[in-house]
From TrEMBL:
UniProt-recorded name of the protein: Sodium:calcium antiporter
PANTHER family named in the record: INNER MEMBRANE PROTEIN YRBG (PTHR10846:SF8), SODIUM/POTASSIUM/CALCIUM EXCHANGER (PTHR10846)
Chain ranges of the Sodium/calcium exchanger membrane region domain: 3-142, 174-316
InterPro entries assigned to the protein according to its UniProt record, in alphabetical order: K/Na/Ca-exchanger, NaCa_Exmemb, NCX_ion-bd_dom_sf
Organism: Pseudidiomarina halophila
A GO term from the CC aspect: plasma membrane
GO MF terms, alphabetically ordered: calcium channel activity; calcium, potassium:sodium antiporter activity
Xref: Gene3D superfamilies: NCX, central ion-binding region (1.20.1420.30)
A Pfam family it matches: Na_Ca_ex
Alphabetical keyword list: Membrane, Transmembrane, Transmembrane helix
Parts of the chain that traverse the membrane: 76-94, 101-117, 123-143, 175-197, 209-232, 239-257, 277-295, 302-320, 332-350
High-level lineage: Bacteria, Pseudomonadati, Pseudomonadota, Gammaproteobacteria, Alteromonadales
Amino acid sequence: MDYVLLALGLVLLISGADGLVRGAARLAASIGIPTIVIGLTVVAFGTSAPELAVSINSAIAGKSELAMANVVGSNIFNVLFILGLAAVITPLVISRQLIRQDVPIMVLVSALVFYLASDGVLSFFECALLVALLVIYTAFLFVQGRKSENAKSDAPGGDELAELTQGNHPAWQSLLWLVVGLALLIAGASLLVNSAVNIARTFGVSEAVIGLTILAIGTSLPEVVTSIVASIKGQRDIAVGNVVGSNTFNLLAVLGISGVVSFDGLTANTQLVQQDLPIMLGVAILTLPLVITGSTLSRSEGALFFGLYVLYTALLVGAAKGEAWVSSLMSLTWYVILPVTVVVVVTSVIRDVARRRKLS
């Protein structure tokens, strides 16, 4: 029964996020906010809405470890799985803005959260700091979007946003979409958290493991759909921007708001502090040289990302179940896979430097 409730919770979450984005986008458009600003803010919040709903529900229910694990797992999944799969489908072109601004911001915010949570706690005041940075970041995006000369064409998810906002939509209709979407999010989050906790108890694994796997993948489904569809349609910059923006919002909005709402902040167990948070930061840093080299994420690099996520998940699940092969796979990871990854990244950087010297 818990699996049925888990699936139902996911359906309600995704439906709620869609309704929330639809209502908010139409309301924003009706008061004259440019499309690019809606894309950078409303859509970014919307794709992070499932994580926000689940984390707030978890924090209020006293399961703050689940709230933290959900965000950490989602950010790892977003970069390694979604970007990896999207790049395998078609090499992803990285815009100058993503390289110079958005990816570095994601890395810096990841480093900040890693530092703040290194003691196993994100206090109320630290979460409030994240919320304050969220306000500053959103205001920055808003001002930047208003100044953009290509507001229509450069908006993340431009085609979908045009379909959402075109035509005359009564304010009451947009508000209804907003309210219904929010209600579905709340209901879906409650079902998802309760069923996930029950499943964790059944298998004897920690809530953090469930948050890093089932909840992280489930709440990242909007990002999966958006990035994969954008990649197939040839909107490759959107596929990358969606993931990068969502990761930044996850850290600032989801962790910050859920920690403030709970009044007690958020906690992280030993595994999260010593393993998963460092992996989240490492994955964020890994994107820097790969997106800078040639301004593309190639199919081979995408396959590398995807393979690393499969490896991470195997180690996570295997360790949780106490499998004997975990130690062997861990040794293989340290002495073979990670060195190969470093060689691939360094080779990409060297080739890019050589290419640029020839061009100059």
